[in-house]
Design brief:
Structural class: alpha/beta
Distance between the termini: 16 Å
Helix content: 25-40%
Mean pLDDT: 95
Number of strands: 13
CATH topology of the largest domain: Aspartate Aminotransferase, domain 2
Radius of gyration: 22 Å
Strand content: 5-15%
C-alpha cells in the first residue's frame, strides 16, 4: 500500500486491518502455543478498559502523570511479594522480557565497574539462557562466556565455575529456561556469584507468574526466587502467564542500591534534568495500566485457578506426546513449557520439523528450535479445552509424516519481518 495523500474513513482503515489479521494464527481458538496468553473474557475486559483510559498517557514524566508512578510502584511491589522479595526490594516496569534482561545485564556491568573497578567485564551464561543475554552482551560491550548444559538440560555448574574470572560481573540462571522448561540450580549459581562478588540474575520471564502459584497448588518447585541467598535480580513478565497485554515486564532487584546501577541520569542539557529508569525514554501508560488492571482483577485466587488449568493441560499434552510412537519430550519439565523431539530409539522415524509443518496446515503453531531439532510449546490458559483436539491431530500428523523429511531446517523463535 502507498501512503495516501488524502486520509481515509476510520471504518475503511479498520476493515483493512481486519483483513490483514485474517492470515494470522488463530490464537483465540487456542491454536498458538506461545506469544499470546489469554486469561478469558473478563481479563480481556479489564485490560481493554484500562487501555482505553491510558491510550495516550506517557510515563516519561510521572510528575505530569503521578498515577503511572503509583501504578508502576504497585505492580512492582505485588510482584516482589510473589517472589518473596524483602522490604528493600525495588524495580521498574519494562516493555518486556528482553528489556528486563538488558537492564539486569547493564546493572551488573555498572556495579562491577563502580565497586570492583572492572573495565573489561565478562558474564557467564548457560547455553539454555535466553538469546537476549547475547543481545545485551553485544549492546553493552561485555564478553559472554557460554557454558554447556547437563543431560537433564539444566546449567552445568562446574562448567560455569570453571568459566569464571576476576572480571566476571554476572552469572545467569533460569526458572525455568525456555527451550525445555527446566529450572536451573539457582542456589548453586547464586553461591557462585556471591563468591565472586558478582550479580546473579534469575530469568523468570516465563515462570514468574507460574511458579509462585504452582507452589501454592502444592506442586514441588525448586528454590529459585529471593529466598535464595545471593540472587541479585529477577525478571518476570506480566504479559506472559500474568495474562496482561504486551508489553509489560518487571525487573526486580534485592535492594535499591542494586537497582540504581541500571538507571541513567543527566543534567548537563538545555532541556533540563533527564532520567531513564530503564532503556526507554517515553513509556506508554497503556500496558502499565492494563497490567495493573489484570493483576487487580484476577488476584492471587484467579492466578491460582489459571495456573491449575494450565499445568493440568500441560501434563495431558506431555502424556499424549510420550504416547505417540516416534516422539519424546525433552527433559523433565513439569510446568507449562515443553519441547517435542523425535525419539531416536523408536522404530518409526519422525522429522519433527515436517511434523510441525503438518500441524501448521491444521492451524497449530509451534516455534521451531535447535539443537536438537524440536517443536516448542508454551501451554497457557489460551489452550484450555483444546488439548484433546491437538493430540488427535498430533497422532494423525505423526502417521502422515512418518519416514518423511523436510529440507527446511530453519528456526523461528523471532523473525526480522
Amino acid at each position: 500500500m502507498t501512503f495516501s495523500f488524502k486520509g481515509r474513513p476510520v471504518d475503511a482503515v479498520i476493515a483493512d486491518l481486519e483483513a490483514k489479521r485474517g492470515r494470522d494464527v488463530r490464537w483465540k481458538d487456542g491454536r498458538a502455543f506461545g506469544m499470546i496468553y489469554n486469561g478469558g473474557p473478563s481479563v480481556d475486559e479489564a485490560a481493554e478498559r484500562a487501555a482505553a483510559l491510558y491510550l495516550h498517557e506517557n510515563a516519561l514524566n510521572t510528575k505530569a502523570f503521578p498515577s503511572l508512578g503509583e501504578i508502576q510502584s504497585e505492580v512492582v511491589r505485588w510482584t516482589a511479594d510473589l517472589l518473596h522479595g524483602p522490604e528493600s526490594a525495588a524495580g521498574f516496569l519494562t516493555s518486556g522480557g528482553t528489556e528486563s534482561i538488558l537492564c539486569a545485564v547493564l546493572a551488573a556491568r555498572e556495579r562491577g565497574h563502580k565497586e570492583r573497578g572492572i573495565t573489561a567485564p565478562e558474564m557467564v551464561v548457560p547455553e539454555s539462557a535466553h538469546a537476549a543475554f547475547h543481545k545485551a552482551a553485544h549492546v553493552f560491550g561485555i564478553k559472554l562466556i557460554k557454558t554447556p548444559v547437563l543431560e537433564d538440560w539444566t546449567a552445568d555448574i562446574a562448567a560455569m565455575a570453571a568459566a569464571a574470572s576476576p572480571s566476571t560481573v554476572l552469572f545467569v540462571g533460569s526458572a525455568p529456561q525456555f527451550p525445555q522448561g527446566v529450572i536451573d540450580d539457582i542456589p548453586a549459581i547464586a553461591a557462585l556469584a556471591k563468591s565472586h562478588g558478582a550479580n546473579c540474575h534469575v530469568d523468570s520471564c516465563m515462570g514468574g507468574f507460574v511458579l509462585p502459584f504452582a507452589e501454592m497448588l502444592g506442586r514441588p518447585v525448586k528454590p529459585w526466587d529471593f529466598r535464595v541467598d545471593g540472587v541479585s535480580s529477577i525478571s518476570a513478565d506480566v504479559h506472559k502467564l500474568g495474562y496482561a497485554p504486551k508489553g509489560a515486564s518487571v525487573i526486580l532487584y534485592r535492594d535499591r542500591t542494586l537497582r540504581s546501577y541500571q538507571t541513567f541520569m543527566f543534567e548537563d542539557w538545555l532541556g533540563g534534568f533527564y532520567a531513564s529508569p530503564n532503556l526507554q525514554g517515553s513509556r506508554s501508560g497503556l500496558p502499565m495500566a492494563a497490567a495493573w488492571a489484570v493483576m487487580q482483577h484476577l488476584g492471587i485466587e484467579g492466578y491460582i485457578k489459571l495456573t491449575e488449568t494450565t499445568l493440568n493441560n500441560a501434563d495431558a499434552m506431555r502424556a499424549g506426546i510420550r504416547a505417540t510412537e516416534g516422539l519424546r519430550v525433552l527433559g523433565d519439565g513439569t510446568y507449562h513449557l515443553l519441547a517435542i523431539a523425535s525419539d531416536p530409539d523408536a522404530k518409526r522415524k519422525i522429522d519433527v520439523f515436517a511434523l510441525g509443518d503438518a500441524l501448521l496446515k491444521r492451524g497449530w503453531f509451534h516455534d521451531r528450535q535447535k539443537p536438537p531439532e524440536s517443536l516448542h510449546a508454551t501451554v497457557s490458559n489460551s489452550n484450555a479445552g483444546m488439548i484433546e483436539a491437538y493430540l488427535k491431530d498430533l497422532k494423525e500428523c505423526a502417521e502422515l509424516v512418518a519416514g518423511q523429511t523436510t529440507d527446511d531446517k530453519s528456526t523461528n523463535y523471532a523473525t526480522l519481518e
